[in-house]
Amino acid sequence: MEVAKTLLAFALLGLALWLFGRQAVSHQVSESLPIRYVRTEGVFQYLSKDELKAALMPLVAVGIIEADMQKIHTTVANLPWVKNVTVERVWPDTIDIKVSERKAYVRWGQNSLLTENGEIFSPSNVDQFQSLLLVEGPKNQEAKTLEIMKGVKTALDDQALELAEFNVNGREAWTLKLKTGLEIVLGRTGQLKKLQRFLDTLPILGQDKLAAMQVVDLRYPNGYAVSWKPEMEAIDWGKPQTQE
What we know:
It is a single chain. The chain is α/β, with parallel strands linked by helices and 244 residues long. It folds into 2 domains: 33-102, Ubiquitin-like (UB roll) (Roll); 106-232, Cell division protein FtsQ/DivIB (Rossmann fold, 3-Layer(aba) Sandwich). It has 7 helices and 12 strands. A 9-stranded mixed β-sheet has the order 6-5-4-7-8-9-10-11-12. The longest helix is centred in the N-terminal third of the chain and has 31 residues, at 2-32. It starts with a helix and ends in a 16-residue tail after the last strand.
């Protein structure tokens, strides 16, 4: 019995020494193998390498063994311009990061952008994208609003009209603005049908009348109302217009 106790004591002591030795070796390896290189691959048009570096710096100031790959992945993936990211530990001293960048399709409100698939992101450099079409709609309905806008844009493109703004308010009423400045109010029901009815009248109206319109209100069952630009209000459109 005493022999068994003695053997057990030696076994436990040996295990403790082995664990201590392994921990010490791991610590030594960690200290002896710092991360010397962080390689980033990808075509970056808007993603700032300084922003990427600042996000990664606290996570790679450790040994190659201690580096938390999941945390590095999550940190990079959470940067606004990052679409996809892969992270790999490359022995003995390198972290490989491959990044693909999002592409802005339209603006969403004043502070965000949407991809073509309706993914919303809010980078710090939104101001660089003022030339993009502006879309506004209910929160959490970005993808749905974008798909509606695409249909409206196609209908307008067929008439050589360029959409500048598309708005769906909280009551689901639609308002459009063209690049010419013309505002088109569509209301809450039958919007596409009303828009097409207006577009069908354009060949009759002609470009001069279209250019003179400031607001077109299509919220009527069988027609629409027009507000003219201030400088055009005095024109009698029933008379032929002569060129000066």
